[in-house]
Amino acid sequence: MNERSLIIVVIMHSKRNLILRAAEKIISTGGIQGLSMQQVANEAGVAAGTIYRYFKDKNELILELRKDVLSQVAAAILQDHQIGTLEERFKRIWMKMHEYGKQASPTNLSYEQYAHLPESNTEEIRALEMKLFEPLHRLFEEGLEQGVIQPLHPRALYAIAMEPSMAMARAIRRGLIQYDQKDITLACDLCWRAILIPTTPTN
Amino acid sequence: MNERSLIIVVIMHSKRNLILRAAEKIISTGGIQGLSMQQVANEAGVAAGTIYRYFKDKNELILELRKDVLSQVAAAILQDHQIGTLEERFKRIWMKMHEYGKQASPTNLSYEQYAHLPESNTEEIRALEMKLFEPLHRLFEEGLEQGVIQPLHPRALYAIAMEPSMAMARAIRRGLIQYDQKDITLACDLCWRAILIPTTPTN
Amino acid sequence: MNERSLIIVVIMHSKRNLILRAAEKIISTGGIQGLSMQQVANEAGVAAGTIYRYFKDKNELILELRKDVLSQVAAAILQDHQIGTLEERFKRIWMKMHEYGKQASPTNLSYEQYAHLPESNTEEIRALEMKLFEPLHRLFEEGLEQGVIQPLHPRALYAIAMEPSMAMARAIRRGLIQYDQKDITLACDLCWRAILIPTTPTN
Amino acid sequence: MNERSLIIVVIMHSKRNLILRAAEKIISTGGIQGLSMQQVANEAGVAAGTIYRYFKDKNELILELRKDVLSQVAAAILQDHQIGTLEERFKRIWMKMHEYGKQASPTNLSYEQYAHLPESNTEEIRALEMKLFEPLHRLFEEGLEQGVIQPLHPRALYAIAMEPSMAMARAIRRGLIQYDQKDITLACDLCWRAILIPTTPTN
DNA sequence: GATGAATGAGACTTCATTCAT
DNA sequence: GATGAATGAAGTCTCATTCAT
């Protein structure tokens, strides 16, 4: 790739990205229903027609945004995921997920909008989700192989130990709970121990 | 209230309810975006204009439906909530929530659509939620007073111990986990013990 | 049908017809390309959305207009078609077609727009055309059975004897030929004799 | 003109022609309504902006194409038009017109799209048409001068004797008549005799 | 109270045309 | 000369809402 074509790709990506970020922002504020192509155009500072150079139609824009947001979330949550013991790895992910979920950033807010959509275009999204969060599944599977984690399906383990992280973050973000670091640490620990097989104390 | 006006109220309520049920069904299928007043009218078997005799506008219809659905969910989950020990009460609620969340009923499916909406009309909804789920909060508070439950905000306890119930139900409904009664019982038990303060074994 | 429902049907037809006539007028002026739904609405004196109560979309509007116009043309041309000898019947149709084609009426002008469209929705139109112009085909077939007309496919006979009627009308309408009744009579007679099998004069 | 500028002109003409042929092809397939500048550019293998170096705007492109197509049609139909007797000349033109009209070539198909357009830009087109088909008019005029052809305006003669050629070709192309060479020859002969002044047989 | 035809604002999308490169 | 990204006006169509019956 020569310099010229590199510049073209960068510009193209920057405009495509501009549009995605605009859509993300609007969704984070007004929900998916509140997303109009004209608004996206205004927010992105481009003409309405320009969006259609980068996305076939509104559906594709939303789908691509979902994929983009999912990737961002996964990257933030799974940063440094492979360092340390099982427990350290679990707690790092739990805490990062919590930190991330607490933010009122466009990315996080728009992320929540997608979570419970009626099942549409889900095949592609689900496959991407699987791929992106694979390290997390592997974490549970390692625990299962080592016999230290309760014998449940990784998704069930996720539901029990990880969902609370997001749920608490949401509650904090919405001002329903006062934020206190000590409580978070405790909650994280409780979640970890919830799926551990207890070791009988030797006396 | 005389007999005649009673009948009128009943009929009125039945038509109002017809419309709510129609809206619920449509939302459960196509999401909130897929809700058009004409569709609601068709599904309810009334004229489009009739809806406006019972609801000021579409927003109010959706708001009223949210409240209606929330009440139904609460009633289903909190049935017999006051019977038994703390543990029995917790587990009964957990299981009922799980059973409810597993269904693909219009009420449950439409319920999920509301959960993560952008914050709008939320004050009224939040107050209702508080009121309806008060027994659940009381359960946690009793446990806290008795010193058997981890010292966390009731909402945090809810996040840790109850959210997994819904999360698993969702995963099962979507076919991501195979359903196995033994696993559910285990998960329920893990959730309960997660928030318990462990009793030091006496020897 | 009671009086009330009759009125409803009449009103409905009148509005539907209003829209068709508006579309016809616009097409006669600016061609099919020049037809915008907003224009039709303006011309018909209704709101744009109203058109969609009577026609699914623009395609259907155009298709229905084609059918409507075709019916009008056929009715005008085949008026009294069954009276008299073969020759009289032929010449009456020829002359009526000519008279009709000479007009600059919206119906006639829009009719011409459809004649040479790229083949689309043609199945339904073709069937209707067959049905409406059946008397004309029968005329040729009778002539063939009686052995007085040249042994050609009715469509070929139509092309030879009838198309000139429309073609001349067009030329007159466009001001390319001066209109002279004697010439028309001659042309009509030439067309009729063109497809006749000449009778050998006995001496 | 030196060699270099000659090359430039040739190249320029070739690109201009490329664009015309692309437009012709698209119109033949999807009608004039289906013609978008982007499509023309794609089909011609040039950038959209390039079209505007050769044609002021879309209208001019269409106008130029009409003129171009008209010239092609005239050239095809009037090939060798001056050879032979009146009858031979007439029949040669009739048959060539028929052969040409039967084809589903882009040129012929797009030609039909123009024939019945609402009257716009017609002055220029009409003048060109006059000039191109002058030999055909002359043929009729010669016949009139010689007193062998019916005393009608050349356009009327054209309508009576030539339009059937195109009309039959169209019917054959569209599959409405089975093609049979003998019938064509008969039709051609009938058309010729239709405008002839019959010679009283001497006995 | 109920109806549903009508409205018209606003949504999505296309496409002729321009212009910086 | 050529490119094609960008523009934005204009088109089609939907739908919440009103109102005469």
Automatic annotation (TrEMBL), chains A, B, C, D:
Keywords, sorted A to Z: DNA-binding
Record-annotated DNA-binding residue ranges: 36-55
Classification via Gene3D superfamilies: Tetracycline Repressor, domain 2
Key word Glycoprotein present: no
This protein's record includes keyword DNA-binding: yes
Domain HTH tetR-type as annotated: residue spans: 13-73
Matching InterPro entries: DNA-bd_HTH_TetR-type_CS, Homeodomain-like_sf, HTH-type_TetR-like_transc_reg, HTH_TetR, Tet_transcr_reg_TetR-rel_C_sf, TetR-like_HI_0893_C
Protein's name according to its UniProt entry: TetR family transcriptional regulator
